[in-house]
Amino acid sequence: MTQPDRDRARSADIALGAQQTALRYISAPQRLLRLFRVLLMASPREKEEWPELVDLPAEKAKAELEAKTKHKVHLVETGSAYTMDFRQDRVRIFYEKDTGKVIRPPRIG
């Protein structure tokens, strides 16, 4: 068993710890289904934030993100108006108008 598998199993044990008594009274297939759900929730997810792009020129940061991800990348100047909706397919890069540099970590949303 590899280290990531052990970590996932440990996460599953912790998540199921409070339910251990309840698990004794359910069938084996139901137990497996619950364990499978916990393991899915504990699995690694895609990156949601890129702090390494702070202080880079905005255009360069945009090019890097477009090359690394499938998300639509939007440049947002400080003080500009933008919508507050959350979208999984979008990354916003906030940059300073005067310097052209990224001022906070780009993130999905």
UniProtKB/TrEMBL annotation:
The keyword Nucleotide-binding does not apply. GO terms for biological process: response to wounding. The keyword Ion transport does not apply. One of its GO terms (molecular function) is serine-type endopeptidase inhibitor activity. It comes from the Eukaryota. InterPro entries: Prot_inh_pot1, Prot_inh_pot1_sf. Keywords: Protease inhibitor, Serine protease inhibitor. Pfam families: potato_inhibit. Belongs to the protease inhibitor I13 (potato type I serine protease inhibitor) family. This is Uncharacterized protein.
